[in-house]
Amino acid sequence: MATPLTPDQWLTILRAEGVRVIEYSGWRTRERDAATGRAFGPVRMFLNHHTAARNSRDTVAKNGVPGLPGPLAHVYLGKDGVATMCSAGRANHAGLMAANAYASFRDEKSTHPAPDKASGTIDGNDVSYGLEAESLGDGKDVYPREQYDAWVRINAAVCRHHGWAADSVGCHKETSIEGKVDPRGPVEGYGTRGRFEFTPTQFRADVAERLKHAPGWSPGSGTTPAPRPPTTEERLTALEKRVTALEKE
Fold first, then answer.
1. Is residue 24 part of a domain?
2. Antiparallel, parallel or unpaired: β 186-187 and 196-197
3. 10 Å Cβ neighbour count for 142?
4. How many structural domains does the chain have?
5. Is residue 183 one of the residues assigned to a domain?
């Protein structure tokens, strides 16, 4: 459970993670809370999508589509890897989630079952952040390296801020009761890895790897992971060794 990020927190954590960020006019106050009478949060997961269209920034940030007013996500991610902030409040991106699928992300399970409508439903717009990555979503349109790299960074930044594991990161097709297929498509490459197909499992693995490192880390850079803080037992052991060494002097 987490209190939604404030606009300033969004900018701070994304820039610290190495994401190039711009602000869409009015994003700080544009939301669906007032119109729907439903509050955004507490937030439990991060949900990822593809736009299924070209040049979708205005659609995602403000205009929406027939029958679905904007904003359609919190973040729009362009092919160039630039993240546009679209909203800090409730956004129309998730729709109804199958309760069994949602619970697996909420509880950070290591496996995520196929969404089953019979398990019940939950309004995902209440409980999840959303990102729309620019892509036709036809299984052929390629996600460039810089776009995928920023995508991983954005998800990791939010997980890092809230203390979430990568299993709080989901894809629309993993929660939707409407048979959504996003995100999908080939990725140009990531770090030292060449071309591969986007899959939720690989994406979570990349987010998990990033969370092992300091925010400024880049894949393939060879930078060592951020040091793990010592446990209480390790600190006591080290203290005992120092005391023993001083007694021998």
1. yes
2. antiparallel
3. 17
4. 1
5. yes
Region class of 155: left (phi > 0), else alpha (psi between -120 and 50), else beta: alpha
Where in the sequence is the domain holding 201, given as residue range(s)? 7-248
pLDDT tens, position by position, 19-75: 999 999 999 999 999 889 998 999 999 999 999 999 999 999 999 999 999 999 999
Tell me if 1 is assigned to some domain.
no
Give DSSP secondary structure letters for 134-202: -B--SS-S-B-HHHHHHHHHHHHHHHHHHT--GGGEEEGGGTBSS----S-SEE--BTTB--EE--HHH
pLDDT at 221: 73
Tell me the CATH number at 176.
3.40.80.10
Q: Across residues 206-213, what is the average pLDDT?
A: 98
Q: Which pTM was predicted?
A: 0.88
